[in-house]
Here is the input.
Amino acid sequence: MAMHDDEIVRLFWERREEALRETQEKYGRYCQGIAKNILENDQDAEECTNDALMKAWESIPPERPASLKAYLGRITRNLSFNLYRKAHANKRGGGAFTAVLDELAECVAGGVEPEEEWAKKELAEAINDYLAGLPKDRRQLFAARYFYADEIPVIARRFGIRENTASVRLARLRKGLREYLTERGFHL
Here is the structure.
């Protein structure tokens, strides 16, 4: 039986390597799924998952995550993005994650330079505010596509809808996000 998150976090705080084994057992597949959706490569996803575990080891303590799953998901996602950017620095190719980025680009591209931390923080807060105003099922749909980078057929199955319905709902969510951000002064 898997250990509870608070017990795993306690092991991290005690600097016991058992924390890594327990985390891998409980959340390894979850992290690998996030990484694979973004990187589209099993070997890179495994490497990214291992890196995420090491990043958790380095950051707990001083961090004490309220949700270990969300914390690991965020670390994995960020590391996956970095590895994806590095691998695709000089090329724009096809692929599911490129499609996810292209879909969101119409909502957020152009208005925020990477060096502008303050602007990025404000943009993130505005996106969170937009999502908070949505019904739960729409938030989950948005997160499945744009946080977990799930493909449309996977999303359609999970939500019990047709692929076309999923695509249309996501397009409406992007349009709504774009309008929401424009109304709040973000130049898109």
The mean pLDDT is 85. The chain has two domains: 5-87, 96-183. The two ends are 49 Å apart (CA to CA).
